[in-house]
């Protein structure tokens, strides 16, 4: 229901855009018709003056030409179109109201359904207490279990799947973690081992932390066992963190004999794979002699979440809203110096910064050139990361779909959703992606901020001092072509053609609009029509050539006026090339490529 509603919302939005364009066209048609009527009246008056016989009234039929009749009929047709337009507008408004009402109903229904699905963690507490008592009795240890935050609610499906892994973690803590009574007393601890399970909600995740005050993970023993079973070779120097990670390897155990409680080698791998299958993650920390902590992050629900939609490198992604702390708009030079530092300063903290496409491994994507580039500050746990993206599309409430075991093992993918348009969009958690990138050290050396030219576009290619290192991806440039034409069809067709060839296209509907856009972007080439309302192509060319900042931009004029006098006039005022409509696509692309090459 949610997805089909968002599909309807998308369609209503498209209708609204089309209606706005229709409004403009009807207004323009009215003005043109008024002009035709005035021309017709003037012609009648002048003809009357020439004729000299004034016995007839000018409005009598023998003087009333077919042209006047047509203009009257056209005026009626335009009024009819106007009233149809008003009806459409009213209907669309009421449809939008109904949709928002339906959205409210859906949300209420959804919250009620969620309440039905949610169960408190306390519903499995009794099982965990019983298991702790039995396991402690069998290995002759005294253990006290404390569960905090048991009122936190989880999705019933999540809790049912994770009960087994939770029991296994407790058994492990009692058998491997907590020492025997004598060993505890000798180490100056109480003879009663303490187990703590803390449950808390963080945004749309539930964090469950299992802690014990035992001896911690025996790194040396894990190394020894891993070497014996062939997971480690003697010359393989692994850090303690990597060795700790081996306990999640299928079939791995450090127990010497097999009992009901330990040594079967089934366990920790199941804990991690079950959590990953639900879109969660498991982390471990251990301190020798002090104890071990296992932290499991699980999704609060498998159903619905709030996300922010982003566009980068021509693709759309979603990020959970709870991770987004702030969205900033950076100007050109600020963006260049942020890349130069590899980080931005935010609330007195240094936050590492990346271009999202780079993090996702798309090395060919180039950012969109714009006056202000969006930057998101994201926080997950204690980690922060700043992301440069092309556009922040906005907030959406989406249905989270299960992504299956293949994708759930990949770092940084939290789930997927289907948008109203039918597109499948991945829900990302970019913080672990950035942590991995920091390890891989994706960043290349850069030029110093003082070397960045003041006029540089937000995505101008920065030339590092070391010619061997590639340009920073977030600052790579894509050539911009501006298309100025009052015909919607011509704009669309040309935009598709150029976008297919890898250009960034900026559209303007007349000369005034083009001059406004030139304030924020500097295109590599401009394609200009002659006949346009408000400001025609000739006036626009003169304005562009008179401005110091835009004087160098090559202009290709594409028009249906192919007479020699128009061509000569265009060349006089500074047009570089003159093409007639319909133009040859290959010829146009060749000209643009030539200008772009010389511009570069």
Please give a structural write-up:
The chain is elongated. The chain is built from 17 helices and 22 strands. It folds into four domains: 2-117; 139-299, 2-Layer Sandwich (Heat Shock Protein 90), CATH 3.30.565; 305-454, OB fold (Dihydrolipoamide Acetyltransferase, E2P) (Beta Barrel), CATH 2.40.50; 479-599, Response regulator (Rossmann fold). Helix 1 (2-51) packs antiparallel against helix 2 (66-117), helix 4 packs antiparallel against helix 8 (268-277) and helix 14 packs parallel to helix 15 (537-546). A five-stranded mixed β-sheet has the order 2-4-5-7-6, with helices on one face. The protein has a five-stranded mixed β-sheet with strand order 10-13-14-12-11, sandwiched between helices. A hairpin with a 2-residue loop joins strand 8 and strand 9. It has 600 residues and is an alpha/beta fold. It is 42% helix and 23% strand. The chain has helices at 2-51, 66-117, 125-138, 156-177, 181-186, 219-228, 240-245, 268-277, 332-341, 356-359, 404-408, 430-440, 488-500, 511-518, 537-546, 564-572, 585-599; strands at residues 118-120, 142-148, 153-155, 192-202, 205-212, 281-287, 291-299, 304-312, 315-320, 324-331, 343-346, 349-355, 372-380, 383-388, 391-399, 413-418, 424-428, 480-484, 504-508, 525-528, 555-559, 577-580. The longest helix has 52 residues, at 66-117.
